[in-house]
Amino acid sequence: MEEEDFFLEDTIDAIPNDGYLVVEYNNTVLCSVHVHSPDEEILLNPENAYSSTEGFESFLDLDGNKYYISVYPGFNKVRYEIAYDEDINNIINIDKAKEFFKSITVRFINYKDYITQLKFFTIKTSKEKWIKELVNFFEHKNTDDIFQIEGLTQLSNDVEKDNLIFIVAGGDKGKIKFDYVQGLYGVAKVVKVPYNKINKSYTIDVQFIYFFNKVLTRKIFSKYENLFDVPNVGPSTKGEQNQAISGITIEQAKSIMLASAEITKISNNILFSLFPWVKDEYQSIATENYKSLIDTLPPALNVISIAKVFAKYLINYNSKHTTTLIGIFGMWGRGKTYFFDKVKEYILNTNNEEKKFYFCKFQPWKYQRQEATWAYLYQKILESYLEKDIKYLDNSFIKKILNYQGKLAEKSKRIQWLYKIITSINIERNYKILALNIKRLGATKLVFSSMFILMAAIWIFFIPFDQKLNFLSWLIGSIGIVGMIYMYKSYSFYMISRHTAKNIMDMYGKTNDYSNYLGFQSEIEKELSLLLQAYIDEKKEKLVLFIDDLDRCNENILIDIIDGLKLVLDNEEINSRLLVVTAVDERILEKAIEHKYLNKKLPTNIGTREYIEKFFLMGIKLNQLNNSDIDELVDIYTDKLNYKLDEDDESIPEIEEPLIENDLNIDAEISGDIIGEIGSDGVPPVIIQSNDGNVRPLFVNNQLNIESLVLKGEEVQYIKEILKKVGLLTPRKINMFIHRYLIFKSLILEILDDSKYEKFHPKMLVEFVVMSQNEDKLNKFKEHYKNNMDFEIFIPLDEFSTEKINREHYIILIKFAEMVSPF
Fold first, then answer.
1. Which residues contact 82 (CB under 8 A, 6 or more apart)?
2. How many domains does the chain fold into?
3. Tens-digit pLDDT profile for residues 763-794
4. Final residue of a domain: which of 566, 599, 621?
5. Domain shared by 102 and 149, yes or no
6. Does pTM top 0.85 for this prediction?
7. SS in 3 state form for 188-213?
8. Is residue 502 part of a domain?
9. Fewest CB atoms within 10 A around its CB: which of 32, 345, 720, 823?
10. Is residue 258 a part of any domain in this protein?
11. What is the DSSP letter of 74?
């Protein structure tokens, strides 16, 4: 008996980290081994080189003899060894074993084909979180012991036909024959809803729509685990990760696409076609709101780290010995609001057992009169108080009332009119208003007035009329004139009580409406103090008042607000409960101080700094962007906007008729020579900026011009270079410039064919958009073509001054550059 009879060595073509070696006997899978990536040295020296053992698996024949396979990955190929695992003399039926070994086949299968062979079932992840999950169930042993499933019927009902699902895979070596890389594999559609209940599971059929270019490993994907609202992407089987497919909602799909550069680069094309509601958002480039875009971008410029430090400072801030404000300084568009949002996010996510934080946002520019501004401040804090979760109110009585209301509503469901009355009563809100007004008016008047109203109600409504007469007769007979006087007083008291009841209801059942109140600041201060006492427990809670866009106020009101806030913070009841953070452009603040307090002839940086130090205990300034900041922001903005659908993508909408007829009735949008030129070309412009400011979509040959919405690498590089020369940039200005350039490029592509467009150097086009934002330069460029009637004219740009361009094309560039820069 020779050992060579039970040893096999060979190589096979394979793509590293993209599939498995499958060992089979008579079309039965014995085991599979994942093909890992080779060592770095192998990639550098690929000829006949293989990594040390990177994969190992064992399997049995029909008699229980044990064999193993070792895998050695190389460059686009794999060397493997198969051998008997023990002393060959222990084999009982040697002939049968030899026949078995000779019949073994090995093949490489990529993960796309591999995963489609799997059968999928539903499972519940935990008692707390419901999510549609499909679990691989390939040749499990002791199934009843493995799966702990609850609420299976409800879960299977949640899985509907045509649902889109993300395929998530995990390894579980000890329980299945197949093992594969943990991670996100692709997107599938539910073809058949759960059926055929087997072993506490339901079979489900899926159709694979798309596989990602590479497996997104669990290590990468786990960074975004909160998107699925579960601790781990896949369910647990006795503490180990098992195979799973995870259901996905619209918001989760959008978040995943926007959260990770790795995911976006790999999957954006197919995901845009699967989720058109996301693609539509990306196509609205010209009209996209700046703030909504910023909110979905990954953080940049170390904002998370800076916000974390600033947030920790606020958490530990002790305002007991100071009445100053805390400032966030920076130019308009620098990202002050975004920065504070990250500070707020960190504080809310910090498990601070000692103090609970609440937040209120105040934008004083909405009311440019001082009295109305203070009334608005009171209103915003009042709204924040009324929104406070009842679970944070230290009152067991109101919680019992709410619990009783819920039980009463449940029992009265069959009686609709009663159910509506019970559920319409906002006990939580009314309690908060009552608690506030007890602070304002005191409880004594409420208690005695309520007792009198109750007694009067009993006398009027519950004592029969004849008993009232008998009582009065007895009273008059007993005390005579004194009784008459008493009756008169009682009647007078009753008349007063009617008004008293109304007054009590008004006082304790309403909030002060300061939107119509233009009283003195001191009165507002008093009311703010009472409101905060009802709202905030100074020992356990803190309200952070964020004053946003203060620099949008006129100079007088800006300083008055800061002065007023300092005065308000002199009130100890307010100061112990309120932390004021103000976002402001320090340049505008300095001008406002100079305007109100200082001689305008004095240098701004002398006296103004002293005043700022008086107003603000400390502050953080978001610096001007340096070159690396500009590079980072341009990359982020262009990555978000830079997608390209396949030319044959069926999801690109077709238009039956042009949006604008081929005529010259567009003088209101594009004026002068260019109109005639466009008309003579016979090319209708299909995107124009109308008088109402709307920008219509771009279409070429009745199809969306995707090419015009894509920024090439060289364009991105030129944008970076030119923006660095502009100076005083903010994230908002950078983002605005990129959008302007995209529309500018799209307009040119619409009017000129590709051969003409390709003659324009990308850097020159970027320069034209920059030039259009400077009125003096724009006029200079206009004068250039008006004074030169040659067929071709030189370009008045330093770098391109020796090059000539068709005069008509030059006019088109100027007109469109001006069009996309209306301000």
1. 7, 8, 9, 23, 67, 68, 69, 101, 104, 106
2. 4
3. 888 888 888 777 778 788 888 877 777 777 77
4. 621
5. no
6. no
7. EEEEEEEEEEECCEEEEEEEEEEEEE
8. no
9. 823
10. yes
11. B
